[in-house]
Design goal:
The chain has about 70 residues and is mainly α. It is built from three helices and no strands. It has one domain (about 10-65).
Length: about 70
Amino acid sequence: MTRSPTSPHLNAAIINRGVDTGDTAYIWRAGGLMAAGRVAQGICACHLPSRTLKTPSRLPQYQTFH
């Protein structure tokens, strides 16, 4: 099972360590980590499927009659 960058543990840490104590630097660091994770997910979601489906043998329409 994979964990998303906005997992409940990271959200709870932002509240406990950042908001409760007033540590805005921690909030920015944790928010940057969450943003970087989302960017990485977006790149992988867009780039990897296009790489893996370039060969005709992996496309469903070519597997039907072969």
